[in-house]
Amino acid sequence: MADDALIIESLRKTYAGGTEALKGISLTVPRGDFFALLGPNGAGKSTLIGIATGLVTKSGGRLVVDGIDADDAPERARRHVGVVPQGLNIDWFGKVLDTVVNQAGYYGISRAQALPRAKKLLTDLGLGDKMHVTARELSGGMQRRLMIARALIHEPTILFLDEPTAGVDVELRRGMWEYLRTLTKDGVTILLTTHYLEEAEQLAGHVAIINKGTIIEQGRMAEVLAKLSTEDLILEVEAPAVGGAIAALAGFRPLAAEGGVQITLDGSRNVTDAVKALDAKGIAVRTARSKSGRLEELFLRLTQDTK
Ligand code: ADP
User: What is the pTM of this model?
Assistant: First the structure.
């Protein structure tokens, strides 16, 4: 088995109308990882999932699923992949158990084999007592869990979840996270797209931030967060003290700024350390104001850019 569940190289997609949804992106998802693809609306997330699951034709680049090049063996690559799309695309009048069992047929899995598997999946997903009701009788959160069960019936090694918790209330969301975590412990690789930063922070081992068809950051969640969680602060001091303040704050990447000095804080240095360093030189800080924030703010900025 390949070490990487998914390798994407220079992937491009230009839609018929000329929209360049993916401008040559590359990423690698290690086996058993929980990978978050984060980005505002229109960034290209669904397009990427569409290509990985064979629903969208790529314009260029390479996709390797579980060591299988999707150009060489598209059907075989697809068998390793499960997908929970963004919209609810279930047969509203179908019974919950049938919905999952019937899906197995698309993969040539016999009913006898699918039935116990489906029951286990539904039970694990908290739908054990709903197997014989129709899908339309389920709550929104339950419908989404039904879609997860359906996506797992052929035992894919990589699961794509496009905004899995959109419209799901907070309590159910946490329950779903728990379940997804157990899947990754069993060696399933999960790639999810999300708008919810909290979700990405809680779940993901690795993250890629995509905007306008380009990946702007990627790496281990903790590292990307640390990078983005540096904070620029403006410390206001008396104008004649600016030179002295810059000298006193040498470790804080100081810059002269309107009304004082701009410094950069990271996990190892906080504002109290800066104020103390100034105090030691007899320089008083009038106020401190934040110049930039962290992931949440970066994301807001991206969203505004895209509008
Ligand atoms: P996201 O999932 O991040 O919101 P999408 O992949 O859906 O982003 O969309 C990326 C870009 O491609 C957007 O500009 C969108 O309008 C465009 N797009 C998506 N699907 C199609 C399509 N079927 N035909 C033409 N353009 C599309």
Answer: 0.78
